[in-house]
Design brief:
Number of helices: 7
Region (Disordered): 1-68
Order of helices and strands: EHHEHEHEEHEEEHEHE
Strand order of the largest sheet: 4-3-2-5-6-10-9
Distance between the termini: 27 Å
Largest sheet: 7 strands, mixed
Strand content: 15-25%
Organism: Streptomyces rutgersensis
Keywords: Methyltransferase, Transferase
Domain Methyltransferase type: 115-207
Number of strands: 10
Protein name: Methyltransferase domain-containing protein
Radius of gyration: 18 Å
């Protein structure tokens, strides 16, 4: 599960927490780290500037690859306990595929070819493998996939852009993405078309993203995050850029209607739209996600799509 919306003030991915007493993470330490020479204060790069501006497909892809490669270690260190090694979590609310069964009923995944897009360290793919599926974990970030190797398992790993999937037509029975790729691409319909292409007839694609309504509110977990601060209809991307104006992080906003039109425009059929409620057991905050906000309005949207 990738970084969540970083509109000012910028949120991080969910802080480490257990799953409400369900299972402890088995993620092993230490996180991969090469020796880093000491840096003086003069060497420290300035904080990127946060702004709203257009960002092309190429710029968005380049920024995402660089950001995830540069932040993968910290990400896995902070959030490995929440994600586990082989747990399939759809979002900060803690909705688990073990419970939700959005990909199919219990026992139905055995023997199916499944593509996970934006897999990170392939936690979801390991859960799928334990269900008897044959998953492939794809991510844009080389460093994230190194963490998949660190954790281990026999899941095939592929480094590629979700907008140009390196697979033949009709290669997979299912595809899934938990906060992967789609929030960060300038043309999400291109990704959806690629997913449709590699799915077999009758296949299903399930993906989760930040709920679009969240873009109207500040990313604050407390009371300040309950007041509308921006137009929900402003699709201008959130961009963090360096001193030369080069994007180092990009996230794109789509309204709920935009997401539905993207699904339909890619030739997929929308089967369900799931908006997980915040459970009582989850008392911790995850960036802008929190029990306070989660009990009042949704933070995650899960789209269940089919290829007819």
């Amino acid at each position: 599960m990738p970084e969540a919306t970083r509109r000012v003030p910028a949120p991080a991915l969910p802080p480490e927490r257990d799953s409400g007493g369900n299972t402890e993470s088995t993620t092993r330490e230490p996180i991969i780290q090469e020796p880093v020479p000491p840096r003086s204060a003069a060497d420290e790069a300035p904080e990127p500037e946060a702004t709203r501006r257009t960002a092309s497909r190429a710029e968005s892809s380049r920024a995402s690859r660089g950001w995830w490669d540069g932040n993968a270690d910290e990400y896995q260190r902070e959030h490995g306990a929440f994600l586990g090694d082989d747990r399939f979590v759809w979002g900060p609310e803690g909705l688990d595929e073990e419970e939700a069964r959005l990909l199919g009923p219990e026992g139905s995944l055995k023997g199916l070819d499944v593509l996970e897009i934006g897999a990170g360290a392939a936690q979801c793919s390991r859960w799928l493998a334990a269900e008897g599926a044959r998953p492939v974990a794809l991510d844009l970030s080389h460093r994230q996939l190194q963490h998949a190797l660190r954790i281990g398992g026999a899941v095939p790993l592929v480094e590629a852009d979700a907008g140009a999937l390196p697979f033949a037509d009709a290669s997979f029975d299912l595809a899934c993405s938990a906060y992967g790729a789609l929030p960060f691409v300038a043309e999400p319909v291109e990704v959806l078309r690629e997913v449709r292409r590699v799915l077999r007839p009758g296949g299903r694609f399930v993906f989760s993203v930040t709920h679009p309504i969240r873009w109207a509110f500040p990313d604050e977990p407390g009371p300040a995050g309950l007041t509308v601060a921006a137009s929900y209809f402003d699709r201008t991307p959130y961009v963090e850029q360096d001193e030369q104006g080069r994007a180092v992080y990009v996230e794109h906003h789509r309204t709920l209607g935009d997401r539905v039109r993207d699904v339909v425009g890619a030739g997929l059929r929308l089967v369900d739209l799931v908006e997980p409620e915040w459970p009582e057991w989850n008392t911790q905050e995850w960036g802008g996600w929190s029990p306070l906000r989660g009990h009042l309005f949704p933070g995650t949207a899960i789209f269940v799509c089919a290829r007819d």
